[in-house]
Amino acid sequence: MMILKTSLRSFFAHKGRMALSLIAVVLSVAFVSGTLVFSNTATSTFDKLFAATASDVSVQPQKPADDGEQQPGDKLPTVPVALAQQVAAVPGVKTAVGQVMVGNAILVNPATSKLVGPTSGAPTLVGNWTDTPRNPMHITSGHVPQGAGELVLDADTAKKAKLGLGDRLRVDNAGGKHEFTIAGIASFSTTNPGAALAFLDTATSQQVLLGEQAFTSVEAFGDGSRGDDQLKADALAKVGAGYQVKTAAEQKAENNKSVGSGLDFMKYAMLGFAGISLLVGGFLIINTFSMLVAQRTREIGLLRAVGGSRGQVNGSVLVEALILGVLGSTLGIGAGVGLAVGLIKLMNAVGMDLNAGDLQIGTNVPIAAYAVGILITVAAAWIPARRASRIAPIAALRDHGTPAEARSNIVRTIIGLVLTAGGAGLLVLAAEAEKAATGGQYLGLGVLLTLVGFVVLGPLLATTVVRVLGAALPALFGPSGKLAQRNATRNPRRTGATAAALMIGLALVIGASVFTSSATESTNKQIDKNVGADYTVSAGRASLSPDILAAIKATPGLSHVTEETALKVTLTAPDGSTDRTFVAAVGATFADDFTIPASAGTPDTLKQGGLAVGEDFAKDHHVKVGDQVAVDYGKGHTQSLPVGLVIGKGNSLFSGVPFVGLDTMTKAVPAADRPLPERLYVKAAAGADAAKTLTALQDSVKQYPQVEVVDKAGYKELVKGQINTLLYLIYGLLGVAIVVAVLGVVNTLALSVVERTREIGLLRAIGLSRRQLRRMIRLESVVIALFGAILGAGLGLAWGVTAQQVLKDHGLESLSVPTGTIVVTLIASVVIGLVAALVPAFRAGRLNVLAAIATD
């Protein structure tokens, strides 16, 4: 009881000083709880949709052996029309409906030649309108499609595209362009997760979407006399083993898995924010409690003198931390709900419609929030609590503060040096590793050890580095500069912990900047060196239809057009080992459009029926030029090809993907099973104006808004944009780290002002002006921030350079150090120091001189 009373009294006596640590806990918990609330809400939305719409039993085409992702140009698997009657005859089935539903078509407004529906995230689905017991949609205006020229569009998509009854809408797919009149608008019975849906009548959907009289699945609904598992067993017995049959529960699980994989990136990114915030916030909490313990030295001595044990002193500090953790976690849950609402609105903006009014706050939210908030706070406070309990009562009563613990400092230094040296050694091993996987493991462990090592060595580095950084301050700023330099080195442990918070964020951003800059530089060089084609044509998630191909080829001023498509194949080496992978089937002029790096053999063999494999494949499967490799394209289509080219490593444009000539592939795969091309490479005719030809190409496919035509410069920008996605995420992490780091610097300075109240009063009494005092605190803050920035820059450079070396054989052949980013980072650290010092400097300047001198 005494411990609780002491802790409560101390906590509320220092509530202002606890406020910034409280903010750090709130931020950390907010990211964790917000991520969970968002994830719960998204999962619940899709659960309700799938539960409300799934049939009791779904009979689908046999799943491919590799269970691979459907490629844009792949032919859709189907089931025969007669299967619906077979399933309807299964005992216990009330209704069996043949369904057509495809995701490889796009919707286009023919009046504007603009895409209708989401361009990323949620899919565009086109199928047949069916009346089922669990139809997720109902007609709200107009009527169901009643002929070959009519279409039903979902209400959300119609509203976004400003389309209504009677308007024209085009469905584009591999079969060409197909125009329809919107005859009906349908609304979801549950929440629309963001997909665009269009429905045709069954006969038209089969002809336009599948090119045959078939279904993509048969959906069966029971009469209630049998369970789903029994219906599944009876259906399997009826239709045979050539199909996969799934119950409603299995359909729901599969759909949730598919949706979950799309949400995982957002989820893990947000947990990354939470992890950085927790790590950086831990240093802030350690500093706060260290300084509060130092300020309560005499109080702790009195507590020990009247019989308080070490455990009670320790417990008193930890109870304060527990109060801080509980309060911060409670506020963090509220902030997390607000963050979840923001995330939902963000997802709505990119095409996934979630209802912010239907937030799902499960039991996992408060459990995780309180576990994270309390554990990190108590764990961070344990170090100063342990130090407080070891203060000798007599030393405390004499106001000597915490003992120097010289032996502890020596041990700390040795541990820090060992960790840093070990981490540096692992980074060297990573850079020299032959395999990227091995190098990646060394890199990860090296990053961890060097980070921990620098944190442990922080006080030792602060003593030397800060003295050097502040060497010019006395000459530039006189007494204020000299005092700032000494104040920054007065408590190296505190300075090291304060700077560590900033160091972590800056190390991340500089390491990521080196990596992304090297990736961009390497790719640009590879494009300049290896790409001979003048233009690249692609259609995003769609394939290139024969109409698009014809339009491109008909453009004047072209030398040739090279097609590329991808097929999932099984390669069998002479030793019997196999590899399930994608193979790129390319036109005969591919070798003219690209300079393929050859480890052995020549690219011309692609025109002569040869197979090109990556160097890693050749090494792993003991394959050399001239060896025969069996290629299985699936559906019984196979051929044996000689290896004519081994592609060298170190070029991201090829990345080990096997190549085969398009003419060679067509000898084994009939036209009905060949996927459509995914990309085209175009070479301008000799003497043609490059800019005018690009414009002509873009004009030729203007009516196909999904098609993008770019030249080399545009191709570089596309690649750069993909690479920068990672960098922007890291910048976001840095933003969180900087916010918490600034709070740490503010807290350290604010508490140090309180701690040095009498000293500040004496300085003012002997003639130091308010302006000089404020300058002293600002300079001290800038020096600490610069110290953290320099440590972060050093670590980030080491990490980024090592990552480039690890992946130099996988496309990152060029090292590029973004000096501009580093300079901006160092300048930003000065700004951070100045901003963090504003409030503490203002408060210090307002201290009453006589009251400060009289402070006990």
TrEMBL record:
<feature type="transmembrane region" description="Helical">
    <location>
        <begin position="443"/>
        <end position="476"/>
    </location>
</feature>
<feature type="transmembrane region" description="Helical">
    <location>
        <begin position="821"/>
        <end position="842"/>
    </location>
</feature>
<feature type="transmembrane region" description="Helical">
    <location>
        <begin position="315"/>
        <end position="344"/>
    </location>
</feature>
<keyword id="KW-0812">Transmembrane</keyword>
<dbReference type="GO" id="GO:0005886">
    <property type="term" value="C:plasma membrane"/>
</dbReference>
<feature type="domain" description="ABC3 transporter permease C-terminal">
    <location>
        <begin position="733"/>
        <end position="848"/>
    </location>
</feature>
<feature type="transmembrane region" description="Helical">
    <location>
        <begin position="497"/>
        <end position="515"/>
    </location>
</feature>
<dbReference type="Pfam" id="PF12704">
    <property type="entry name" value="MacB_PCD"/>
</dbReference>
<keyword id="KW-0472">Membrane</keyword>
<dbReference type="Pfam" id="PF02687">
    <property type="entry name" value="FtsX"/>
</dbReference>
<dbReference type="InterPro" id="IPR025857">
    <property type="entry name" value="MacB_PCD"/>
</dbReference>
<feature type="transmembrane region" description="Helical">
    <location>
        <begin position="268"/>
        <end position="294"/>
    </location>
</feature>
<feature type="domain" description="ABC3 transporter permease C-terminal">
    <location>
        <begin position="273"/>
        <end position="393"/>
    </location>
</feature>
<feature type="region of interest" description="Disordered">
    <location>
        <begin position="57"/>
        <end position="76"/>
    </location>
</feature>
<protein>
    <submittedName>
        <fullName>ABC transporter permease</fullName>
    </submittedName>
</protein>
<keyword id="KW-1133">Transmembrane helix</keyword>
<feature type="domain" description="MacB-like periplasmic core">
    <location>
        <begin position="19"/>
        <end position="209"/>
    </location>
</feature>
<comment type="similarity">
    <text>Belongs to the ABC-4 integral membrane protein family.</text>
</comment>
<feature type="transmembrane region" description="Helical">
    <location>
        <begin position="726"/>
        <end position="754"/>
    </location>
</feature>
<feature type="transmembrane region" description="Helical">
    <location>
        <begin position="364"/>
        <end position="383"/>
    </location>
</feature>
<feature type="transmembrane region" description="Helical">
    <location>
        <begin position="410"/>
        <end position="431"/>
    </location>
</feature>
<dbReference type="InterPro" id="IPR003838">
    <property type="entry name" value="ABC3_permease_C"/>
</dbReference>
<dbReference type="GO" id="GO:0022857">
    <property type="term" value="F:transmembrane transporter activity"/>
</dbReference>
<feature type="transmembrane region" description="Helical">
    <location>
        <begin position="779"/>
        <end position="801"/>
    </location>
</feature>
<keyword id="KW-1003">Cell membrane</keyword>
<dbReference type="InterPro" id="IPR050250">
    <property type="entry name" value="Macrolide_Exporter_MacB"/>
</dbReference>
<feature type="domain" description="MacB-like periplasmic core">
    <location>
        <begin position="495"/>
        <end position="698"/>
    </location>
</feature>
